[in-house]
Structure formats: C-alpha cells, structure tokens
Amino acid sequence: MRHFFSVKEIKKLIDVFSGFKYNVFHWHLTDDQGWRIEIKKYPKLTSVGAWRDSTVNNHYATQPRTYTKEHYGGFYTQAEIKEVVQYAQERFITIVPEIEMPGHSRAALAAYPNLSCTGKSMNVPGLWGVFDDIFCTKDTTFEFIYNVLDEVIDLFPSTYIHIGGDEAPKMRWKQCAECQHNIQVNGLKDEHELQSWFIRKIDAYLTLKGKKLIGW
C-alpha cells in the first residue's frame, strides 16, 4: 500500500466497518511504494522495502511533477498484525491480506533485487503508476514467495489470500532468458500464458496449505 496507517488508524477503520455491519476487511499490505508486513525470514522487506525517500505530490500525471523529499514509510510487526486480526475477530470481521504478485513488487525488488529479471539495484519508488520491473519467474522467486506466504498464512485465519495479479507489464519477461525458458519448457504461447502459469503455481501452493487464492 502506498501510504502507511498506524495500528490505531486501522482499528478505527475496523470500528467503522463494524458499525456498517461489514464483515470482511481487505488489507492491502504490499505495493510498489512500500512493503508493510514483517516477514521474519526476509528482514530487508521492512528495513529497505518499507521506506522511500520521496513521494510525488498530487496526481502522478501532474506536470511538472514535484516531490516531497522526506524519508517516509512504516510497517506492521507480526505482533501488531496478530493484535489487529484479533481486534477484527472480536467484531466479527475477517481480514483478507493482499500480497501483490507478480507486478506491483518494486518494494520487494528494492530489498531483494535478485528476485527481478535484471538483478539490478533499484529504489522504492515515490511515484504512482505501473512499473516494468516485476517478479521474475525463476525458481528462487517462487521459493521466496512460498516462504512469505507461509508466514502470512500463520498470521491470518482467513480462508482467502489475495495475491493481486493486476498490472504486470511483460517487457522484462520478454527480455529474460529464464522466463523465456519457462515459456518453452512448459509449452506456453507467450508471456501472458506465463503469468497464468505463475498464478497457477501460487494457487496450487495455497491450496496445499488449505487456503484459497483470489486476485483482481
């Protein structure tokens, strides 16, 4: 999520949900502009990925663009996540977490650039929009995602895990030898089918863990 809200603010939102008798809270916890959930196996997700050095002012298409140059961000510890989940449960609200993939992953790639197709160092962007750098389809990426999901599953009793899935440009995949190899060996037509293959792998893993995948 692009902006960070304190636990107090999240609880206030849950109170509003309860007042309107909503029973599901979709908690968007990762995006290009910030990674907001502690993953103990990957500490750089929060030490690096939860922070950016600038934030665009107004709409991203405003010209000329101007930025607020300040260190901005934050994240929820696993203890805080458990606290919020319990708070919601006491109000009969289920929290469905969202961990974005394969796109909207710049914050994760800033922390662990080896998960990208290029392996190049990149920052956590302070600009909104859609970015070309997304998770690569190599084995190490899936190992990372499975490990992240294991910790997320332990924190959220929800049947559903949201994985985003939208706005994933294919430019890097088209230029990536490993992604092209996956297309060939799996008999896929193109990069769009490669994304379907990617999502099916995540779906199979979540199913194995007793969860159901949803996305955009």
Task: Describe what you observe in this structure.
The chain has 216 residues and is of the alpha/beta class. It has eight helices and ten strands. The strands form four sheets. Strands 1-8-9-10 form a four-stranded parallel β-sheet. A two-stranded antiparallel ribbon has the order 2-3. Strands 4-7 form a two-stranded antiparallel sheet. The radius of gyration is 18 Å and the shape is globular. The relative contact order is 0.15. The model has no long low-confidence stretch (mean pLDDT 97).
Number of strands: 10
Radius of gyration: 18 Å
User: Termini separation (Å)?
Assistant: 15 Å
Q: Report the principal-axis shape.
A: globular
Lateral arrangement of strands in the main beta sheet = 1-8-9-10
Average pLDDT, rounded to a whole number, is: 97
**String of helices and strands:** HEEEHEEEEHEHHEHHHE
Low-confidence segments: none
Which band does the percent of strand residues land in?
15-25%
Structural class: alpha/beta
Q: Please tally the helical runs, counting DSSP H or I stretches of 4 or more residues.
A: 8
Main beta-sheet strand count, sense and barrel state: 4 strands, parallel
Helix content: 25-40%
Topology summary:
Layout: H1 7-19, E1 24-28, E2 30-31, E3 34-35, H2 44-47, E4 51-52, E5 55-56, E6 67-68, E7 72-73, H3 78-89, E8 94-101, H4 106-111, H5 139-155, E9 160-164, H6 171-175, H7 177-185, H8 191-208, E10 212-214
Parallel strand pairs: 1-8, 8-9, 9-10
Antiparallel strand pairs: 2-3, 4-7, 5-6
Helix pairs in contact: 1-3
